[in-house]
């Protein structure tokens, strides 16, 4: 029997790889379907227990005999607690996890039927559903937007990661809410806190709720300090371990040589003083400002919007700023001052403003922390120039894959990067057309909220 030719062998290996990917996807879809069904079943269990308390509660019990004990609630509430306890024992979950899982199904069925159907079909996970549900308190202030929000977030979730879905849900809800961003920030700011959660083996988590600009400035400082640490000081530690050690040293006031970091923030001129609003642009209707742009939002690129008061204070603290020139209606960046001494620094900041995150589909690593890639290689016969039109922000891992593997990176007209794999699979941009869809959603709202936050 003759040996297979290299070409035939390569085709066979590619087929096997596709089959393996298909099996993994099928397993993921089935796991998502099972998780959704379990949440629904737990909701049904708790509802049934409330409807039939006699299954758990002694009908002959005299409440007066329970003197000295805290109130257990009515029969229905007591029966529900018993059912949650039994479910936790059967499924080896905590009672809180049982109640949380049931609540997700109940709320999603009532408020996000399309998103929940996607979970039932296995297209998204329960974590995706929770990410969208978290924004429903804001959407409830604009009832006419709930159906469109449900449809839009369903389409985003089925092709996005959980973190990407969470970020876009927050941004879209922010555009539709009737409550101003400054009001919401003030309420959230009052809840700032620090707490410690002890885990096993002498380790603990440290949590701190602080303003977004400070959190990301500190995160970038950790990353940059770890990245520039000499190899002799790493001592075999991973980047994550180095960041954790630096964090602990900074908390206790250790001697740490910090790398100065920067967080980019864009502030529309008419957000600085009320008097400037009329002179900068004519107030636009809801259909003209739909979407997320630099004209109408104070932004931390790649992270999201921030309230006006925080943005103004950050601008005052900075002491200097760079003008970003945008198209007055769409907010698309047209030009930027090039008065920085180092051109590469200006180009990096430009790309961070335009893209926010790594340009590769689905990647949410910040552009300002990544590499700057020449789309047409700088070296070689084609020799691409170091010009904005030929530069893309790619995170370190994606940049390495582009230059050393068979993956092919294709740039789209909107600047996003599609990755084509040898197996034939290719990535898609889960947020393509988001601006237009938000605009259409705003157009369907019968009465826009008074004093909208944009």
TrEMBL record:
It comes from Microbacterium trichothecenolyticum (Aureobacterium trichothecenolyticum). Residues 76-351 form the DUF222 domain. This is DUF222 domain-containing protein. It comes from the Bacteria.
């Amino acid at each position: 029997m003759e040996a297979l030719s290299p070409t035939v062998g390569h085709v066979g290996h590619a087929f096997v790889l596709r089959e393996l990917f298909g099996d993994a996807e099928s397993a993921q879809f089935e796991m998502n379907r099972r998780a959704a069904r379990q949440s629904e079943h737990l909701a049904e269990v708790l509802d049934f227990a409330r409807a039939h308390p006699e299954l758990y509660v002694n009908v002959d019990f005299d409440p007066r005999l329970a003197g000295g004990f805290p109130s257990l609630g009515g029969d229905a509430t007591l029966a529900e607690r018993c059912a949650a306890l039994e479910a936790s024992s059967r499924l080896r979950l905590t009672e809180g996890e049982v109640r949380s899982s049931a609540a997700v199904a109940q709320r999603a069925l009532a408020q996000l039927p399309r998103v929940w159907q996607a979970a039932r079909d296995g297209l998204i996970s329960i974590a995706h559903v929770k990410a969208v549900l978290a924004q429903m308190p804001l959407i409830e202030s604009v009832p006419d937007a709930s159906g469109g929000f449900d449809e839009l977030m369903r389409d985003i979730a089925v092709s996005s990661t959980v973190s990407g879905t969470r970020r876009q849900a927050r941004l879209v809800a922010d555009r539709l809410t009737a409550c101003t961003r400054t009001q919401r920030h003030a309420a959230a700011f009052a809840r700032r806190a620090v707490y410690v959660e002890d885990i096993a083996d002498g380790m603990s988590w440290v949590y701190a709720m602080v303003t977004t600009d400070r959190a990301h400035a500190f995160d970038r400082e950790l990353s940059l300090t770890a990245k520039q640490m000499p190899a002799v000081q790493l001592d075999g530690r991973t980047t994550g371990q180095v960041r954790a050690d630096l964090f602990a040293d900074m908390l206790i006031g250790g001697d740490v040589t910090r790398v100065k970091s920067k967080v980019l923030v864009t502030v529309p001129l008419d957000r600085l003083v009320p008097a400037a609003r009329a002179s900068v642009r004519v107030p636009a209707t809801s259909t003209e400002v739909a979407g997320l742009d630099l004209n109408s939002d104070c932004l931390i690129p790649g992270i999201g919007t921030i309230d006006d008061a925080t943005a103004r204070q950050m601008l005052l603290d900075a002491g200097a700023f760079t003008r970003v020139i945008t198209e007055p209606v769409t907010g698309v960046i047209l030009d930027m001052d090039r008065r920085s001494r180092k051109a590469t620094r200006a180009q990096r900041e430009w790309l961070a403003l335009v893209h926010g995150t790594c340009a590769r589909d689905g990647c949410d690593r910040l552009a300002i922390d990544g590499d700057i890639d020449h789309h047409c290689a700088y070296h070689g016969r084609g020799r691409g120039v170091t010009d904005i039109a030929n530069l893309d922000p790619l995170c370190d891992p994606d940049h390495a894959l582009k230059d050393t593997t068979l993956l092919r990176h294709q740039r789209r007209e909107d600047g996003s990067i599609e990755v084509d794999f040898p197996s034939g699979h290719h990535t898609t941009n889960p947020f393509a057309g988001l601006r237009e869809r938000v605009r259409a959603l705003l157009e369907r709202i019968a009465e826009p909220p008074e004093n909208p936050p944009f």
